[in-house]
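Example complex used in Figure S2.
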Amino acid sequence: MNFLEERILKDGVVKPGNVLKVDSFLNHKMDVYLLDEIGREFKRRFAGEKITKVLTIESSGIAIALPVAREFGVPLVFAKKAKSINIDGEMYVAEVESFTHKKTNQVIVAKRFLTPEDRVLIIDDFLANGCALQGLISIVDAAEAEVVGCGIAIEKGFQDGGERIRNLGYHLESLAIVESMDAQTGHITFRSQN
Amino acid sequence: MNFLEERILKDGVVKPGNVLKVDSFLNHKMDVYLLDEIGREFKRRFAGEKITKVLTIESSGIAIALPVAREFGVPLVFAKKAKSINIDGEMYVAEVESFTHKKTNQVIVAKRFLTPEDRVLIIDDFLANGCALQGLISIVDAAEAEVVGCGIAIEKGFQDGGERIRNLGYHLESLAIVESMDAQTGHITFRSQN
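Predicted assembly (388 residues):
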């Protein structure tokens, strides 16, 4: 079991509706040492890859992606949910359905921040149905840049997002893949990654 | 002139309506080296203070606050805009009017993440009318925790938020205080901090 799986067992809480709460260490109150360790682990898993930018999506993706960008020494770009009056110029746009908030958002990235020369590592905290990840991939594609890989902190292995992304041929690394979880007992099992 | 003021002059863009765009290095595409430098500078400005938590507000505050929390070796808590079905239990709530988005949000922090023993450093990217900062202060007050200080990347010195917070007696440090800016010429002047 790796450091993130151990932490999920220790501090994660399973709630009805396939909700895994990790807000005490990953997406509300955040453990800065854990985030650094996540950064180092993605550096290890994508070692040898030439990466020019890390791309994530607001909000909780930012805290996961920043240590990764730091490890690679490249800029971090985060896709914004479209609403800001401060965003002008041309934008790449993707439709993303949020599992958590049960609605569809337009997410945008300014065109000048992704170019055909970019080799992009996409990072996010959760992967469930894969909508957010597919939206980010479509933005990288629209920029004619290359998706080097996708790094996810926690994948819900019982939903089909991970399989779909892997079947499309992308190099997807999830630090913890939850195979099943039970809100009544609180029991969580992880997919073996050996 | 400090490193952030220099960077604003180099890469910031003044837009009509008192908008300063820093999205090429601070809040859309982010320079990880600059963020580290911001973390170190706040560590220097609040040196000797006992700090147990860093508090910020989503989204763009997270990238500024994380390197600060990392420097102090304490957890980062970010206030969320109230919308999530994943948030249960008791919450501290504040009303915050967004200058950028022209609307009022409820922002929330789970009560279990702020306790009366906490000594909190509040961090955000921008300070204009001070609504976000006052909302965060009110949340720390509600938790009966102590606000050790407030650290802001860019303060709009021609708006009254900074003065109001300082008049309330808080130790407020802004790395760059914009005294005036002109959308026609692009000219920006900073308040001297010597």
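The first strand of chain A starts at residue 13 and ends at 15. Chain A has a mean pLDDT of 94.
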